[in-house]
Amino acid sequence: MTCRGSDAARAATVFGAVALLAACSSSHSAEETSKAKELVAATKSAGVAPGLTVDAAEALYGTSASQLCDALDGGVSSAEQLLLTGNLTGRRDKVITTDSVTYGELVVKTYCPDQLSAYDDLVDDIDATKVTR
Q1: What is the DSSP string of 34-101?
Q2: In this prediction, what percent of the chain has a pLDDT beyond 90?
């Protein structure tokens, strides 16, 4: 996959914003750091999210990744499924990469492994696109 100039600039902006958020955040607990290190190691091993740092993971997920784990708790409604898969209107499928599905799985395994079956159900029907590098 090749990135056009605007795509590369957009990606750089997103990573810059994450880095700024991480730099401005308060000190992190030992549990946040431990979970973040676990996630970063898992993403590196899987070859996804190469720019993820421990500081960014701490800032994004804290100790519980509540933005994802809470959504998966008790199952996902059809409206939540549309939101979590980026298909807000339900009309047209969005391109979701295999890397993003893998990344989401690693976040769930790290922060709320008891919700893994709910995540698997969520992504079961997604026809993820393989990204070639």
Answers
A1: HHHHHHHHHHHHHT--TT--HHHHHHHHTTT-HHHHHHHTT---HHHHHHHTT-SSSSSPPP-BHHHH
A2: 38
